[in-house]
Amino acid sequence: MRRYSKQRTRMINNHLIARGITDERVLKTMATVPRHLFLDESIQNQAYSDNPLPIGSRQTISQPYIVGLMTEALELKGIEKVLEIGTGCGYQTAILAELAERVFSIERIASLAFRAQRTLDSLHYHNILIRAGDGTYGWSEESPFDAIITTAGAPKIPQTLKRQLAVGGRLIIPVGSQSSQTLLKITRLSEEPDDIKTEDLCGCRFVDLIGEYGWKG
Ligand code: SAM
């Protein structure tokens, strides 16, 4: 775990604190989770630079700043049930598992879901359930969720996810075209799923959310 610890500290200072991430729990967690172990050995030395990196199947791990920003916006205190759409390599999943009580994560590409599960098992995470499938349906049997994070860009907010959000819960999702999106923070205000507060966090560019309530693959 000590390997790359200097690079992790530099990542925290230069890419997170310097760009306005202040949540101490998020900073502490990202300073300890070994991001390089989620990547292919040939690119592990780039793990702590502020870039997205390839994880196979034409998908990417998000840059550290975006992971920090999205996680901070979820306002996790340690007691939440969280849904993640887009497990990818499992790095964001590990961050969520450190900061919340339980994490349910869905990945469309089965080989990525399998590899993420293996990595997370090797790091001894026991509060994560991963399944392969179309996350735009959400995970209704486990709803409502206190927080939902979508790590792929959607044409609009899937109604399914609004419905599966607890009252007071937060949904972080990139919404826009396939070439650029706005990262949105949605807070559900009442039992009525469309009674929401919407905040724009920043412009961004994510891979496509492909599925029934996303882009058609
Ligand atoms: N958070 C991830 C990580 O730490 O590696 C990065 C995820 S990557 C930017 C987005 C992921 O969303 C991809 O792995 C992609 O296959 C997945 N994805 C796209 N559409 C999906 C869907 N409908 N359901 C579940 N996963 C989906």
Keyword list:
217 residues, alpha/beta, Rossmann fold, two-stranded antiparallel ribbon, 6 helices, 27% strand, globular, binds S-adenosylmethionine
Description:
This protein has six helices and nine strands; from the N terminus they run ααββαβαβαββαβββ. It has a seven-stranded mixed sheet with strand order 5-4-3-6-7-8-9. The chain is α/β, with parallel strands linked by helices. β1 (53-56) and β2 (59-61) form a beta hairpin. It has a domain at 54-204: Rossmann fold (3-Layer(aba) Sandwich), CATH 3.40.50.150.
A few lines on this structure:
The chain has 217 residues and is of the alpha/beta class. Helices cover 26% and strands 27% of the residues.
Give the SSE map.
Blueprint: H1 5-16, H2 24-30, E1 53-56, E2 59-61, H3 64-73, E3 81-85, H4 91-99, E4 102-107, H5 110-122, E5 128-132, E6 145-150, H6 159-163, E7 165-176, E8 181-188, E9 196-204
Parallel strand pairs: 3-4, 3-6, 4-5, 6-7
Antiparallel strand pairs: 1-2, 7-8, 8-9
Bound molecules: S-adenosylmethionine.
S-adenosylmethionine (SAM) binds at residues 55, 59-62, 85-86, 88-89, 91-92, 106-109, 112, 134-136, 151-152, 206-207, 209-211, 214.
